[in-house]
Amino acid sequence: MRNAAGDQLNPNLSPSFARARTLSRILALLFTIGFGLMLFASLVCLLIPVAPLVPHGHLGVGFQGIRVSLDGLSTGQLLWVLLAVEITILPLLLLMHHTRRVFGHFAKGEIFVLPVIGHIRHAGLWLIASFLANIAAQTMLRATGFMPPGLAEGSTWPLVIGLVTFIAAYVMEEARRIAEENASIL
User: Fold this and answer.
1) Residue 14 to residues 53, 74, 143, 175, 184: CA-CA distances in angstroms?
2) What Rg, from alpha-carbon coordinates, does the chain have?
3) Which of 25, 101, 113, 167 could make an S-S bridge to 107, C-beta 3.0–4.6 Å?
4) Domain spans of the chain?
């Protein structure tokens, strides 16, 4: 059986893969929920420039271990904070999208098909981008005085895992090519 891209579906999966399919359905659902929450957060953050219109209370945003008070900021400063927040959210949003798609394919029994490999590659790239986005956002906030000079939050794990994931996608693609080549010989 082949899909629209001409990729073979369910290639002789062992019965033990049924458990992986079930877990993949659960993970696809969890990453879909995560995607929805990240999308909602991204949209809510677009309200940052209207924060001064809130009649009372102290407003702030917290992300990546940093808390920025929105009290008394000019429109330009609010836009700067909005940009810093959105820069960190966008790669995570796209990472969630590609990860939910990977597990959606796994749940259908699609393993070494080109769409899965593409989504894994993109997930790795967005992990790397999230590492760089965090640095960019912190640099922006530090340059504008919203973040103290000595404070640095973050980890190199998104970079490391992103690189590993990106390379693993190429390994999967090569394994797929070799399997197709061997199948054509038989």
Assistant:
1) 60, 61, 56, 18, 22
2) 21
3) 25
4) 17-185
CA distance linking residue 167 with residue 146, whole number of Å:
37
* pLDDT of 66 above 70: no
pTM assigned to the model: 0.83
Contact of 49 with 75, CB cutoff 8 Å: yes
Spatial separation of the C-alpha atoms in residues 26 and 72, rounded to whole Å: 44
Q: Model confidence over 4-54: pLDDT tens digits? A: 444 444 557 787 888 999 999 999 999 999 999 999 999 988 888 876 666
What is the CB neighbour count within 10 angstroms for residue 167?
A: 12
**Crossing angle between the packed helical segments 17-45 and 75-107, to the nearest 10 degrees:** 160
The pLDDT tens digits for 118-157 are 999 999 999 999 999 998 988 888 887 777 666 666 788 9
Instruction: Single out the residue of 12, 18, 135, 77 nearest to residue 68, CA to CA.
Output: 77
Say if residue 72's pLDDT is above 80.
no
Residue 185 contacts residue 143 (beta carbons within 8 Å): no
